Amino acid sequence: MSAIPSGPRPKHLTIGRIGMYCFILTCALFFLMPLYVMIITSLKDMDEIRAANILNLPKELSFYSWPKAWSQACTGFVCEGLKPGFFNSIKITVPSVIVSVGLSAINGYALAFWRFKGAYFFFGLCMFGAFIPYQVMVYPLLKIEDALGIYSTLPGIILVHTIFGMPILTLIFRNFYTSLPIDLFKAARIDGGNFIKIFLYVIIPMSAPITIVAVILQVTGIWNDFLLGLVFAGRDNQPMTVQLNNIVQVDYGVAEYNVDMSATILTSLVPLFVYFISGRWFVRGIAAGAIKG
Amino acid sequence: MKNNVEVKNISFSYGKTEILKDLSLDIREGEFMVLLGPSGCGKTTLLNCIAGLLDLTDGQIWIEDDNVTWKEPKDRHIGMVFQSYALYPSMTVEKNLSFGLRMMNTPKNIINEKIDKAANLLQINELLKRRPSQLSGGQRQRVAIGRALVRDAKVFLFDEPLSNLDAKLRAELRYEIKKLHRDLSNTMIYVTHDQIEAMTLADRISVMKDGLIQQLDTPKQIYNKPANLFVAGFIGSPSMNFLKASYDKPNKKIIVGKKQIDISKYENINSLINDQEVVFGIRPENINIEKNENSIQCKVELVEPMGADTLVWTSVEYNPISIRLEGSSNFNLNDEINISFDINKSSIFDSKSEERI
To answer: Residue A49 has what DSSP assignment?
Structure first.
């Protein structure tokens, strides 16, 4: 036989490869199962749910649980659904993300390029801060906010999210910036930039990938937060997660599983959406230096 | 001539590592000064100190009779070109060039005028609307040089600007930098580890090692009269041949193993003392193949034809010796040859202090 390779690479479907596909498929099904149950349960009416065929498709599609979860389900004595929680979550998430990402970018930039006295100590503090479980700090922080008079207010919860987000975001930004060529920064200094100008004109235009990563982390983190929202937001600003909990945990009456499922899916739509539109960027940002260093 | 840049007794340390030690250097107005040395010798650190990008541990830096030791880089009237080009990736070439001027709030018409002038000089007019990622290495470095030009700097600093380019482009841009210096006659300080760049560009070279200046002189002097063993070995390719020897004063000869070399024509022969341990250094082109009363007989061990020259390797008392001959010369392995040294072009170093005698 001639041993000269020529033409397209021969295709091989080996047993190993088939096994791999089987494994991947099983994993995917396993993780999709709860989602499947949630969706079909939300589309059944209560009679069918009581029949307890949890994996069966609905005999008759019923959509009434969705608007109910959105605007009529009762949380305690108020029956306005999740809607107020959704808007509260937006009011909390948007400013918290902007403030924490903005400040962390400046921090990371200062740590990476300006190497001020005590920079390493500050860097160490950030590392430390990023790994402390935040439950430890809830009570002291509550006392501080109470003393400042912002406990149970919107600025109060925004401040808390900003504080808890900054250590890890600062690290991420710092690591990204240290991976940029230092000569760029030197050139900008010779060209007459000061701390602010270099940041605005040279550094920010190069920060898109890492900023997207930071925004994704913060949006999902803050949106999914339950504990801090419960403790710090106050009755008027309860985020969607806290309201979801109130809907699901009924002390009296009937547990409406279809409404619960709709409410849960509605609550998780925002982070899901963020992941879908930004997954590509997320990988790129991680590769660009968030993990490296 | 007036001094343009004065480096006065500066020291620089990273933590406990001392990189520059009490270093002084005067650079004259309009001079092309090359800082040359192996990596880790402190040449780039020195350049960064002059630029103000690193804070000195001690000493002063003056630019045009102005003590700039603690001034910000932007207030030192310098332009700098980096090895990595350091172009702002998000800006077009035009914006890259004008960034410094815009930072200083220069009026628009003056900015345009200066960009035009620099772009013409460097032939980058067609590239003005492009981004750095759309340029080749050579074009990027032109733009980087342009960015230094538009600032009307009193001093230009080059940090190994050609090291990332391929050999052909390097030679091209080297030529252009030299032309630029001829036309602008600005003071330029140029860091490199490439001795060809240093030799071709410099008015004066300062050869550095371990944070100290080993020799500061014209390229010719440095090549022909290296101040010590390090400079002698570092400058020149193929490098200088060295023979360990001891001096026999009565006969004005040095003794290498069983061989003797008459050095009565050496310029500083009277500074040598009897039995002094020395290192005899001779460049490959200062060895002749001829038979006379002083010649040494040896064998051809290797021949390297390089086109314009041919390098013939042999050995004297087990020390390898290279001889540079015309490209047309024809030698074969194991040929018996007689070699003699041009003593007045040789260098003799004390083997302890390694200084030239």
So the answer is: H
